[in-house]
C-alpha cells in the first residue's frame, strides 16, 4: 500500500509547474481568460444583467482569477465559497448553459489547445456542481445521499 503524498508547499508548487508546462496556463493566461470572458458576459443579454451587480471590477477579476488559478493550476490562492456567492443570484439552467458556452469559447480563443481543454473540463464540473447545488438549496432536487448516510 502506498502512502499518500503529503500536501506541502513544495508539492503544490511542483504540481503547478507541471500543469503550466503541460497546458501553457500561467497567471497571465488565467487573467486573460477571465478578462475576456467578462467582457463577453457583460455584453450578453442573459448574463449581462447578473453582472450588473458587480461594482468593483478589478477586485472581482482578481478574486475570480485566484479561483481559476486554484482550480486549474492547483495554486491554492482562492479562499472562498462559490456556492454562497452564486446562490442569491437567481441563476437557472439557461444561465449555466450560456456561461459554459461563453467560457468554452473564451478558453478556446485565449489558450493553447491543452490549456483550453484543461479549463473546459473543470468549468463543466463546476457548472454542474453549482447548478445542482443551487437546485438542491431551492428544494428543486433532493439532496444527494452519499454512501454511509442513513435514511
Protein model, in words:
The protein is mainly α. It has a single domain, classed as Globins (Globin-like, Orthogonal Bundle). 67% of the residues lie in helices and 0% in strands. The chain has 7 helices and no strands. The radius of gyration is 17 Å and the shape is globular. The protein starts with 8 loop residues before the first helix and ends in a 14-residue tail after the last helix. The relative contact order is 0.13.
Summarize the structure.
With 151 residues, the protein is mainly alpha-helical. It has 7 helices and no strands.
User: How much strand?
Assistant: under 5%
What percentage of residues falls in helices of 4 or more residues?
Answer: 55-70%
Under CATH, the topology is which?
Globin-like
The gyration radius over C-alpha positions equals 17 Å
Amino-to-carboxy terminus distance: 33 Å
Mean pLDDT, nearest integer?
A: 90
Look at the structure and give the CATH class: Mainly Alpha
Instruction: Characterize the biggest β-sheet.
Output: none
How many domains? The number is 1
Describe the global form: globular
CATH homologous superfamily title: Globins
What is the annotated CATH architecture?
Orthogonal Bundle
Secondary-structure-based class equals: mainly alpha
Q: How many β-strand stretches? A: 0
Q: What are the secondary-structure elements, in order, as H or E?
A: HHHHHHH
Q: State the helix count.
A: 7
Poorly predicted segments: none
InterPro entries: Globin-like_sf, Globin/Proto, Hemoglobin_trunc
Keywords: Heme, Iron, Metal-binding, Transport
Organism: Siccirubricoccus soli
Protein name: Group III truncated hemoglobin
Amino acid at each position: 500500500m502506498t502512502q499518500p503524498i503529503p500536501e506541502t508547499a513544495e508539492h503544490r508548487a511542483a504540481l503547478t509547474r507541471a500543469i503550466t508546462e503541460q497546458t501553457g496556463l500561467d497567471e497571465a493566461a488565467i487573467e486573460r481568460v477571465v478578462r475576456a470572458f467578462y467582457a463577453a458576459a457583460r455584453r450578453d443579454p442573459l448574463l449581462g444583467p447578473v453582472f450588473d451587480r458587480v461594482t468593483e471590477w478589478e477586485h472581482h477579476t482578481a478574486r475570480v482569477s485566484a479561483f481559476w488559478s486554484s482550480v486549474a493550476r492547483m495554486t491554492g490562492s482562492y479562499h472562498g465559497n462559490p456556492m454562497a456567492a452564486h446562490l442569491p443570484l437567481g441563476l437557472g439552467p439557461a444561465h449555466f448553459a450560456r456561461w459554459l458556452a461563453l467560457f468554452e469559447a473564451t478558453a478556446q480563443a485565449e489558450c493553447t489547445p491543452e490549456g483550453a481543454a484543461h479549463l473546459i473540463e473543470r468549468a463543466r464540473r463546476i457548472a454542474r456542481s453549482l447548478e445542482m447545488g443551487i437546485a438542491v438549496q431551492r428544494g428543486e432536487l433532493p439532496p444527494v445521499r452519499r454512501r454511509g448516510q442513513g435514511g
